[in-house]
# Entry
Amino acid sequence: MNAPESPRRRWNLFLQLEAFAAAPGWPGRLLFAAIILFMLWAGLDPKGYRFHNEVDWVENGGGLRFGRYGRVETEPFLSREQAATLNTQGFALELVFEPPRKWDSGFRVLASFHSGADASQLILGQWREHLILMNGDDYSHERRTPRITADTAPFGPGPLTLIINRNANRTSLFLNGELISASPKLHLTLPAAPDPGRLTLGNTANASLPWRGVIRQFALIGRPLTTAEIRSRAQTPLNAERPPGDPFLFFRFVQGSGATVVNQGSLPVPLTIPPRLYALGPRFLLGSLAAATPRNLLAIDSIVNFIGFMPFAAVITMLLQASRYGRVRALLIATLASLFLSFNIELAQAWMPPRDSSLRDLLLNTNGGLVGAWIWILARQWWQRFLPK
# Structure
């Protein structure tokens, strides 16, 4: 009995592909090069990168405007002794800013103090209209770590004066002099280990959660503010006056130009606007990015990373079998090729904000390559068994 016409056509297609791959000279090499270039383009997505730091001065001393990918930062300055003193006696943070007019999807970071470990960082973030204050990297709140939130929608457009007060009993958040949220469970701390702490504005230290908006002023004050002082700060036009006490940091973004903002506080710590955006800490093969990714997006990303390397490994296996490599050897080489290519993509992503280099992606890519190579071998065996040559 003759084999059905449709399976026979597919088997003929297999034979044609293998004949093309096994042809001497450039055909097989051209196919291999095309596959590699496509995988690199898909994995790195070069059109989506902005190595240029998108931070601009607003006219007439109106602050700093952060674009799609931007960040300003200090050098590491906060010692363990200074952090311990502030965390014991309390402190206050002041931020005058204008939220973005159009909300970006996901969690975005206005300001952070980072000391080399995401688990201890101090984060002031924004998700749509809501401000989020916390320590750590539980951006999606799946681990239910303590945090406080504030809705900015009732205040309408225009600049907002945010004051975070941390005393011995609780952490409080004020907007325009009004108490919005407070929690005794959130014992907000400034990090200073394993490295000295540093300030970043408009993004994380890893350059992975950019915020788009305008920041006009920032201050770190070495004691909690009183209710009267907080109300007074909110009523001062653009908070032109120096914060009460002796602030450690006091940056007013009014100069209109330049790559350095002088600290008017007590510490000799300038704020710099680097010409290029890059990660300030280690980003290669991070253990997990689940905390920063919603579950639905994490599931889609996992499926894409697994399936994406299956065609690559299948083509590698086809090329090897066309060159008379055995099944086991072809399977092993295709899997190792998937591992090698994925490793290099993750290595490149470690230097390409806002992409993330993830150990999870490396494992998914490699296992996807293994399955893709095995599927090709099984399909070829099936067609050879059920369709006569």
User: Anything to note?
Assistant: The radius of gyration is 27 Å. The CA atoms of residues 283 and 328 lie 35 Å apart. The chain has eight helices and 16 strands.
